[in-house]
Amino acid sequence: MLHPRRWLTAGAIAFALSNAAQAAWPERPITLLVPAAPGGTTDISARLIADKLSARLGQQVIVENRAGAAGIIGAQALARAKPDGYTLLMGNIGPNAINYALYKTLPYKPSDFAPVTLVISVPNVLVVNEASPARTVADLRAEARRDPSKVSFGSSGAGQSPHLSAELFKQRAGISGTHVPYKGAGPAVAALLGQQFTFMIDNLPSSMPYIQSGKLRALAVTSDKRLAELPDVPTMAEAGVKDMVVTAWFGLVAPAGTPKDVIDKLYAATRDVVQSPGIRDRFKAMGGQAGGNTPAEFSVFIDQERGRWKQIVDAAGLAREQ
């Protein structure tokens, strides 16, 4: 039998080794899950910060797309991941806020996640194909009212902010239309470029290049003020659609139980990356605003967003089975 002092020594050594292991994080590559297809804001923002984070943390940050089911597949994968700081999620307004109200059952819950920091927030934009006869929101409303059966709208997936924004737009504008969901903004934008549906309310970054090239026409933005990047595009209020301010957001989330010192290191590195002039300017050019709030602040923000979208979903009667 070991002497009690030897037991104490062994325990102290194990504790020291555990602390040293945490202090050494990260010792291997980190996987950043994106719960959407390539080409959307979730994917764009994740890839913009991944290399910068790799440089700051001294380990590769690998972006892995887990698209499908309104972000549920990616969020569930994170909820099941080991809470060691080596698997993260580029969370967003869909799976981390809207879904709790939209779906009666989900394979994850808010307490499964540890918020790290907001990365970027962006307005949404109402867009149509360049060949559309609609040059204003009023034109689109008139077109929709003439023949509602021919009106359809695309989105990056059921439950994502583009989908809910379009549902709100339908309510506020007094029109109807058939929803056509895709597995991310990239495929949805490609379908709109191919004139597969009438209109889309998209997160601005994924539509911005096509607006600038003239392939898509922006009719209104969901911000409360016009954007410097699109000075000729009115707000929804200016276009005659009241109470239609929507901001989409994207941020880093870790599995619940991830050590606090790992969360703190990850937060500090991400904050420095998103607040760096290069990334901040890239986000601004996309029509977005850089984040960088603390884990506690981000947690409170997500809680508030869940409550806000529950009111919207309940009022619209949009709740459904998964």
From TrEMBL:
<comment type="similarity">
    <text>Belongs to the UPF0065 (bug) family.</text>
</comment>
<dbReference type="Pfam" id="PF03401">
    <property type="entry name" value="TctC"/>
</dbReference>
<dbReference type="InterPro" id="IPR005064">
    <property type="entry name" value="BUG"/>
</dbReference>
<feature type="signal peptide">
    <location>
        <begin position="1"/>
        <end position="23"/>
    </location>
</feature>
<protein>
    <submittedName>
        <fullName>Tripartite tricarboxylate transporter substrate binding protein</fullName>
    </submittedName>
</protein>
<keyword id="KW-0732">Signal</keyword>
<dbReference type="InterPro" id="IPR042100">
    <property type="entry name" value="Bug_dom1"/>
</dbReference>
